[in-house]
Every structure is written in C-alpha cells, then in structure tokens.
Amino acid sequence: MERKSITVDELLAVFKRYWRSICLLTLLAGVGAAAKEYFAATKYRGTTSILVITPNVSASLSQLAVLNASAATPLRTIKGVVMSDRETRAIIDKFGLDWHKFEYEFQVTDESQTNQLVISYDSTDQKKILDLLQFTIDKLGELDEQFNFSVGTRQAVELGKELKKKEKDLASEEDKLLALQKTMKTASDPTDPQSIVAYLEAYQKLEMQLGGVKTQLKALRDQLETAAADTSVPSAIPPAVAWQKKLSEVEYRLRVARTTMAEENPEVVRLKRIEEQTKEQYQNDVKKYLTSVNKNLDPTLATLESKRILLEYQTAQARELARVAPEEGLKLGREVTEVLTLRKVVTNLRAQYEQAKIEAEVSKVRWSVLDPPYIERKPVNKRYRIPVLAAMGVVFTISMIVGFARFRKSQSA
User: What does the DSSP assignment read for 62-123?
Assistant: First the structure.
C-alpha cells in the first residue's frame, strides 16, 4: 500500500474546511489551561543560600576544581551533605512528605563561581516552606558539629579524649604518690642511691657515739663506786618523752629539706640550728631531772647520762630508718617513675592536641547562611504563557490531525 505525503495545500484545505472547529477547540484549550492555572492552589518557592569558604584553598586549586567536575571541593562537600540520605530522610520524616514529590520540589544547586549553595523548596504552604528550609540549615549545622567536615577536627576530638583519660590517670598516680609520701618514715631521693645509704651511715655513726658514751659512763661509775658515791639513775626519764617528739619532728623536716636543697641553703641551715638547740635543751632538761631526783649525783655523770639517753633514742630511730629506707626508696622510686612517665605522655598529648586544633581550624570547611529562608515574589505555578501556549499547541495539532483524517476519508469516498 503506497503512503502519500502530506502537502501544504492539503493542510491549508483541511484548515479552511474545519477552521471553526479547530480554532474553537484551540481557544477552549487555552482558556482551560489558563483556568486551571488560575484556580489551582498557589505554589510558592522558598529559597535560602549558603556561602562556603575555605581559607586554605589556593586560587589554582579553586580554578582546577571549577574545570574538573569530579574534583572534590568544599562546596560540593556541603552539597553532598544536604542531599545525603541522612539529611533528606530527616526532612521527610519531620514534615511527613511524599518521597517522590519531594525529589521534584526540593532542589539544591551549587554555584562554583560565587561559592554559594542555593537550596529551594516549592509548596503551597509558605510557613511550611520557611520551616523546612530552616530545618535543613539546622540539620546541616548538626551534622557539621557531629562530623566537623574536617579530618583534623576528628583527630583533635580523639586526641582530646585520650588527653582527658591520661590526665585522669596522672591525677590518680599523683594521689598515690602523695599518700605514700605521707606514710613514709624516710625522706630519700629515689634518683640518688646514696640517699638510702646515708641512713645506714647515720645509724653506724650514732652507734659509735653511743658506744663511746657508754664506755665513759662505765669508767666514771667504776671511779665513783670506788669513792662510795651514789650513782643510781632512774630508769624512766619523763622530760625525755616530750623532747623526743619535738626532736623527731625537727629531724624529719631536716631530712625532707636536704632531699631538695643544698647544705648551704638558708632553710637547711636554720633547721640544723633548731636541731642542735633541741638536742641541747633535751640534754639539759634530762640532766636537771637526774640531778633533782638524786641530789648526790655527780654532775659529770648526770651529763653523760643525759647524753646517753639522747643517743639511745637517736640510735633506735636511725636503726628503724636504716631498716625501712631501702623498701621505701624502692616504692617511692616506682611511684615517681610512673608519675614522671605519665606527665611526659600528658605533655606530648597536650602538644599534639593543640596542634591538631590549629590544623583543624585552618582546614575546616566553613559555611554560613548568606540569605536566610525567604519566599520568592512570583508564584511558581501562576505563569500563564507557557501552559496556555502548550495546551493550545497540543490541541491545535490534534485537531489538525483529526481534520486531515476526515479530509482524506471524504476524498476517497
């Protein structure tokens, strides 16, 4: 079957025969399209724009990103977050929207020349538009705070957590060290082994002094017994008890001072002077007591006895200190080493943390709202020209096709 082509003359003939119907239908289509636009609910478009700035991006890199559509830029990063499933799902759930309609009504456009991200939403509810756009901005800020859009920031956060943990460990170890120092009888320097040996040397020195005094006492007693003098001495000396406590406190303060200060330090010199004065008063009070309870006691014997009582107390104290010094020194050394190690770790972590914060601030993707959400002046569905012309064009074409079919049929009949 041979197909005939449509000529212009035939089209003119069709229009001439059916022009009333064609024009009427076309006009009615235009009026219908205009009426539909007029009576349809007014749909508004809300818009907001975000300015994205990265201080560390050089001009050459920015130009390269503009030319390369696949290059990752801060602007595209922010756009990706806004269009992400997490962001869009939160918007849809918040406002109870239809997913398919939302895809057409919600638009995100990146303008690389001005570093702006334009977000728009179409709806018949103006308040809903403004609320939705504001929620979009708020959700973007929430995700920014959560993910920070910067590797440096995430590193700073992790370092900050580790720093707090180590600071807590350090505080715990320092408390343990302080508790140990409060219970220690000795005051040694764990970094100096000689400080522990000094307790043994002090004990041996006092033993020799005590032995010498005892020898002098024995010789004097033998001499006095030969002369039939009274050499009896009370076994308990009340003044000694009070002075022993005072002397113990002064000696401990002096030992502590010597661990951190030189012998020429004014504080050490002052404590040494107080120690000597305390010993002298100790012996004087004991001597007075011995003389008062034994009127016939030889003054020399009273002096030697008071010295012996003092040395026996000091020797007993030195013996105990020499016994516990190695163990306490070992414990103290371990605690001090642990505290110093943690302090070094905390110092290094703090330096890394501060550096990471600086790097995060420099490399962070910064954005701010340039234009808050607003409603555009013209409604998006009240533009009559295009819908009317489209409807008229479609109806005119269909009318011509129908008219041509009737025209051919009438000719062949």
Answer: HHHHHH-TTS--HHHHHHHHHTSHHHHHHHHHHHT--HHHHHHHEEEEEETTTTEEEEEEEE
Q: Report strand pairing: 116-123 vs 106-111.
A: antiparallel
Kindly list the strands in the beta sheet with 106-111, ordered across the sheet, starting from the edge strand earlier in the chain: 106-111, 116-123, 44-53, 366-375
The single-letter DSSP state of residue 141 is: H
Return d(Cα 133, Cα 374) in angstroms, integer.
9
The amino acid at 217: L
Residue where the block lists tokens 């239908």: 25
**pLDDT, mean of residues 306-334:** 78
Task: Report the SS3 class of residue 319.
Answer: helix
Run of H or E residues at 50: strand 44-53
Q: What Rg do the C-alpha atoms of the chain give, in angstroms? A: 51
Cβ atoms 221, 369 nearer than 8 A: no
Residue 373: partners with Cβ closer than 8 Å, 6 or more residues away: 46, 47, 48, 129, 130, 133, 134, 137
Specify the 3-state DSSP secondary structure of 371: strand
Predicted confidence at residue 68, as pLDDT, reads: 47
Q: Read off the tokens for 51.
A: 């300015």
Euclidean distance between CA atoms 210 and 231, whole angstroms = 19
Q: Return the number of other C-beta atoms located less than 10 Å from residue 262's C-beta.
A: 9
| The length of the chain, given as a count of residues | 413
Tell me the whole-structure pTM to 2 decimals.
0.43
pLDDT tens by residue, 180-197:
777 777 776 655 666 677
Look up residue 13 and give its two tokens. 């003939």
pLDDT tens readout for residues 339-390: 889 999 999 999 888 887 776 666 567 788 999 999 988 888 777 778 888 8
The first and second tokens of residue 403, run together, are 């008219």
How far is 259 from 374, CA to CA, in rounded Å?
74
**Cα–Cα distance, 267 to 283 (Å, whole number):** 25
What whole-number percentage of the chain has pLDDT above 90?
A: 16
